[in-house]
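Board notes (copied after class):
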Amino acid sequence: MGNDNRKMEKKNKALIGSLLIILAGCFWGSMGIFVRRLGTYEFSSIQIVSIRVTLAALLFAAVLFIKDRAGFKISLRDLPLFLGLGLGSILFFTVCYFTAITMMSLSTAAILLYTSPVWIMLMAVVFFHEKLTKRKMLALGLAFAGCVLVSGISGGGVTLVGLLVGLGSGIGYGLYSILGTIALRKYSSYTVTTYTFVIAAIGSWFISRPVDMFQKFSVATDLGFLIAFCFLTALITAVIPFLAYTLGLERVEASKAGIIATIEPMVATLIGIIVFSEPLTFLSGAGILLILAAVVILNLKQRSENR
């Protein structure tokens, strides 16, 4: 009876973790709405990144202050870990991704970004000794194929530098799952996300031309709305999804989390259709079905994880 209860608790824990990661992917998928609106104020992509991570850092700090003030205490020995999360993951992958967009088509950049589950799975095998099961490999293949179809298959040429930058975005994106899992062994999800974004925010100010950014705020005719919209952007595209994803990492394996998170491009495609009246092609529809299939396969009850 005791074993049955433990199995049920473990199953429920994994289900909750998967739902949290799906929630994070849905919120991330809405990013295009906010980025396009902020772009009308002539902010550069890097400036939008800086606004997003800076305000997210303030909101995360406020949440941590309310939830657990003791969570602000971290060991200096763990500072490199948080530097890796803030600079090596969040800021690095975002800068690489937006740089890739300027060097190649958006679809190709998106495909390279969503190589992240591959890197997560490989790093999880090396660092956490996670098992590389047939089910994970099948789900990974379906998810990546779905991302390719949803993003669109580009026929444009990609330079070696562009390829490396694009792959860098996927590696940096995937690194959050690995370093986040390590940090969660010692710190709460609130502490991890707060310090990650505080460090990313500090780093972003060195590359975002802050003087020019403040000038754009100063000439805005609807400054009150703009500031409120910036906070909403940070809340919807960073605070809620990263907190949900980090909480999910406490409940599911890093490699599984990375694959489930590929629901993001599917959501982005659906928002493009509904909000921006973008057409749904046959390939995009097929890609959405493949991503959903990958998520379902990862969450189906199986007889043996080693099969």
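Comment from the instructor: The radius of gyration is 19 Å. DSSP finds 14 helices and no strands in the chain.
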